[in-house]
Amino acid sequence: MTSKSKVFIAGVGFSPTPPKGSPEFECIAALVSAATKALLDAGLSYDDVVQGVTSVGGNTNIRGSDAFEAFDEGAVAVDEVELGFELHTSYDWIRHRGALCVLMIAIEEDSAALLRESDGLRAKLEGPAGKGLYDVCQMVWALRGWSHAQGIAARGGLLLYQSREKLSIELSRADAKTIVGWEEVEYRQDGKHRLGYNPAVETKDISQEDFEAVGVSSKRQKQMGGRTQFHRKGGDKAALSRL
Fold first, then answer.
1. What are the backbone dihedrals phi and psi of residue 185, each rounded to the nearest 5 degrees, phi first?
2. CA dist., res. 50 & res. 112, Å (int)
3. Strands (E), the chain
């Protein structure tokens, strides 16, 4: 690796956690939905993932590793870490252990997933992970120009993410440009078009076609039973056709 190589946040996804007391399968489906959105956002499939990272603890008995099983049982090793350290651990897998693509799934008040793809090191991304991956999702959307939050553009092309230990992570655009306006990216063919909406301003459920588009076989879905059955789009084409 050289100092010029970088670590990229290739895609992010968010799905709300079901209400307290919901059946286990609904909680797992929310995590699977978030991971599916991250894969669609990145334009990748589950076959590209070489390592998983998820959290343990929190206010639920659901393990993030259960969501990985929905994609392909045992195909990807999953590293379980303390809640809030998913980002740091994923970076370590890429920086020090040679993983090219890491999928993170966090069990939080709001379930979130984040996908990172790498061709090496990015020196600015360092320090333990922060409070929640949803904050990272919002930062990524802002850097892309998808958010309409006030004050974002004035901060140039960098956003700071503080960890629980008050250490900062700098996130910036891969092209080193300042944050663009929404009018410059509204019609750009990218993750929001693969999703079919702008996740920075609204949240929607994934469809069964979306789930299949990221590489989940029909055989695996039958093995999972009814734990991850999403609605069909009807006559719409699967998201894969738009990758």
1. -125, -5
2. 19
3. 7-16, 51-56, 78-82, 101-106, 110-118, 158-162, 168-172
How far is residue 72's CA from residue 42's CA, in Å, rounded to a whole number? Answer: 19
The DSSP secondary structure of 7-37, one letter per residue, reads: EEEEEEEEEEPPPTT--HHHHHHHHHHHHHH
- 3 Cβ partners below 8 Å, 6+ apart? 121, 123
pLDDT along the chain (243 residues), means of 10: 64 86 84 92 91 75 80 84 81 88 78 49 33 77 79 55 59 81 89 91 88 71 59 53 43
Is the separation of the CB atoms in 16 and 203 below 8 Å?
A: yes
Could you give the residue ranges of the DSSP H alpha helices within 43-132?
A: 64-71, 86-97
**Cα gap 62→134, rounded to integer Å:** 18
Residue appearing with tokens 């990172």:
116
Dihedral angle sign, alpha carbons of residues 128, 107, 111, 109:
negative
Distances (CA, A) of 197 to 20, 144, 242: 27, 14, 13
pLDDT of residue 2: 40
Helices (H), 63-156: 64-71, 86-97, 133-144
Q: What token pair was written down for 32?
A: 């699977």
73 Cβ contact partners less than 8 Å away, ≥ 6 residues apart: 220, 223
